[in-house]
Amino acid sequence: MIKASELRDKDVIDINTGEKLGNIIDIEVNLEEGRVEGIVIPKETSFLGFLIKI
């Protein structure tokens, strides 16, 4: 098992293309079911930086 704090700053890789999508900056956890619902990584843009949830 891994701690949530250990996930922070881990690389997120698209398994189909091998492309690095970014680093985890936050996670969404469903406490009732005890599972991760999603991860948040920064989305790189040329104008403004936004966040995307995977």
From TrEMBL:
Residues 2-45 form the PRC-barrel domain. It holds the Pfam family PRC. This is PRC-barrel domain-containing protein.
